[in-house]
């Protein structure tokens, strides 16, 4: 069966969305988006730079000071509900674009999560309010607070899940009354750009949502450094996060929220239901070809069941169908780019050099029509220890390291032996131990007897070098709001 691909994937170069218009980059520069399953170019995309970012920020400022400010909470709620309906109606098309541009298999698309987030934040638009505060200041003074939108928000996102990543930024911005300039990843710009076209179907003032595609060092850096951007929501690597914090401090101290990397521990005790734990711990590493920030890549297994879990995970890894993202039987697609392939295969070489043993996988896949794409085998390593680089560094590929442990205190200490603190998992039937470990792991999220559940009502974020602040939930709204205190002399 051949899949009919969206017309969006053909034709002239994609432009930038600035002030409600699609425009080329001022420099005229473009870059090619590449299909990672085949290595073939798809369509070219405008490469915005500082001048285009300046235009987009100016458009966002005009919209913020102008008509968008007069939208009532109920009108903003309706905008989000309408966008949810449109995204739902286009979810098949958006899934195909994501499959071709980023390599997520068609059978594994989760567009529903983006729609749920839009509906969740629509509800918040009408529920943001200040408070009256009894106070003891001298005189007869009445004080109240007003949550006010921070203004122009910038969003810089990675490539690994572009639809939810875009919606997780846009939805709270619209709910709070901010305007936005979005900088998608150069590796996966097409889904956000098609979403931009869909947003144009809404009855929104021009400039509320702007999209500037381009490279990190040019477009991304210009957005982070722009003095008229009030907030940056960043999702991506620690290296870039550090540059963004510096740029914010060196320009206008814009507020920064950071969602960064992970090397999350997934801890399996001997009393766990291994029939559930083994496949779930495996998919927590191999899903999305391991290109998942919350991937549970350090799998700690209590020694009595170590061999059984190792063997089980290796069997799951070997059973996964790796292939072209458009093949409906594919479980695991390619890595996103040639650069990511080089990075991951570099770690596969390093693992061998460090003395790890590949129980399964460990190599690039290039037979059977996969030679031009960026495929690697799902890989499970034993004979690893905590201070190896492959155990400490985020690989962002389908690579599990499986480590034995002997007691609870030891595994808590080792689980926390990481610069990252994004997520973690605990598998046990012992209720007290489940809580003990869940509390002791220094991460933003912990799952017990499951892994990776996400819901828009539940905070999503990291501790330590994994980030500042949370995505989703009511908590993210505070990142888009200033709380103003108003004092009234009532005498
Ligand atoms: P990256 O940091 O290389 O790029 C992320 C974004 O930053 C891209 O849009 C890029 O163009 C831009 N950028 C690059 N250099 C920049 C600069 N100097 N100034 C401003 N912007 C710049 O990350 P990536 O490779 O796209 O994504 C993988 C990383 O993202 C991993 O570390 C992963 O864990 C992390 N991630 C985290 C979460 C989370 O929610 N915690 C979710 C997804 C991905």
Quick summary of this structure?
This protein has 491 residues and is α/β, with parallel strands linked by helices. It is built from 15 helices and 26 strands.
Give a structural overview.
This protein is of the alpha/beta class. Helix content is 37%, strand content 21%. It has 15 helices and 26 strands. The strands form 8 sheets. A 7-stranded mixed β-sheet has the order 14-17-18-13-12-20-21, with helices on both faces. Strands 9-8-7-10-11-24 form a 6-stranded mixed β-sheet, sandwiched between helices. Strands 5-6-26 form a 3-stranded antiparallel β-sheet. Helix 2 (73-89) packs antiparallel against helix 4. The longest helix has 17 residues, at 73-89. The radius of gyration is 23 Å and the shape is globular. The mean pLDDT is 97. Bound molecules: nicotinamide-adenine-dinucleotide (NAD). Residues 156-160, 183, 185-186, 215-217, 220-221, 224, 235-237, 240, 243-244, 259-262, 293, 394, 396, 422, 462, 467 line the site of nicotinamide-adenine-dinucleotide (NAD).
Main-sheet strand order equals 14-17-18-13-12-20-21
Distance between the termini: 78 Å
Bound ligand species: nicotinamide-adenine-dinucleotide
Estimate what percentage of residues fall within beta strands. 15-25%
- How many alpha or pi helices? 15
Evaluate the radius of gyration.
23 Å
Q: What is the multimeric organization of the chains shown?
A: single chain
Uncertain spans? none
Largest sheet: 7 strands, mixed
The coarse overall form would be globular
Number of strands: 26
Percentage of helical residues? 25-40%
Structural class: alpha/beta
Rounded average pLDDT: 97
């Amino acid at each position: 069966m051949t899949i009919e691909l969206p017309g969006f994937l053909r034709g002239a170069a994609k432009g930038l969305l600035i002030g409600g218009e699609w425009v080329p980059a001022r420099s005229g520069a473009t870059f090619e988006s590449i299909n990672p399953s085949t290595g073939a170019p798809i369509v070219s995309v405008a490469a915005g730079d500082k001048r285009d970012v300046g235009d987009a920020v100016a458009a966002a400022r005009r919209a913020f000071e102008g008509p968008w400010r007069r939208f009532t909470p109920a009108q903003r709620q309706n905008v989000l509900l309408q966008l949810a309906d449109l995204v739902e109606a286009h979810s098949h098309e958006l899934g195909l674009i994501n499959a071709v541009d980023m390599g997520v298999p068609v059978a594994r698309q989760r567009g529903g999560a983006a729609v749920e987030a839009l509906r969740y934040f629509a509800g918040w638009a009408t529920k943001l309010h200040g408070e009256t505060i009894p106070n003891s200041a001298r005189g007869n003074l009445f004080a109240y607070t007003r949550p006010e939108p921070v203004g122009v928000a910038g969003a810089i996102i990675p490539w690994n899940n572009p639809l939810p990543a875009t919606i997780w930024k846009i939805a709270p911005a619209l709910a709070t009354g901010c305007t936005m300039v979005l900088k998608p990843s150069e590796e996966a710009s097409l889904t956000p750009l098609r979403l931009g076209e869909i947003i144009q179907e809404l009855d929104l003032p021009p400039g509320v949502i702007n999209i500037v595609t381009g490279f990190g060092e040019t477009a991304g850096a210009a957005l982070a450094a722009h003095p008229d951007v009030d907030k940056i929501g960043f999702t991506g690597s620690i290296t870039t996060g550090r540059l963004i914090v510096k740029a914010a401090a060196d320009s206008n101290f814009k507020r920064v929220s950071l969602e960064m990397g992970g090397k999350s521990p997934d801890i399996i005790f001997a009393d766990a239901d291994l029939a559930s734990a083994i496949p779930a711990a495996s998919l927590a590493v191999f899903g999305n070809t391991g290109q998942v920030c919350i991937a549970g890549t350090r799998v700690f297994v209590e020694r009595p069941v170590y061999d059984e879990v190792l063997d089980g995970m290796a069997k799951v890894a070997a059973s996964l169908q790796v292939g072209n993202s458009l093949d409906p039987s594919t479980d695991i697609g390619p890595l996103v780019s040639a650069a990511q392939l080089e990075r991951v295969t570099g770690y596969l070489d390093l693992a061998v050099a460090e003395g790890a043993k590949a129980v399964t996988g460990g190599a690039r896949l290039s037979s059977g029509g996969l030679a031009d794409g960026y495929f690697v085998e799902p890989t499970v390593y034993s004979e690893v220890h905590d201070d190896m680089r492959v155990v400490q560094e985020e690989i962002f590929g389908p690579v599990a390291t499986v480590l034995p442990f002997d007691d609870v205190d030891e595994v808590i200490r080792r689980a926390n032996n990481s610069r990252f603190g994004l997520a973690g998992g605990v598998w046990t039937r012992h209720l007290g131990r489940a809580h003990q470990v869940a509390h002791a792991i220094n991460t933003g999220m912990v799952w017990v007897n499951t892994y990776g559940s996400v819901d828009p009502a539940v905070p999503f974020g990291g501790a330590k070098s994994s980030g500042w602040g949370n995505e989703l939930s009511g908590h993210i709204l505070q990142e888009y709001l200033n709380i103003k205190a108003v004092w009234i002399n009532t005498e």
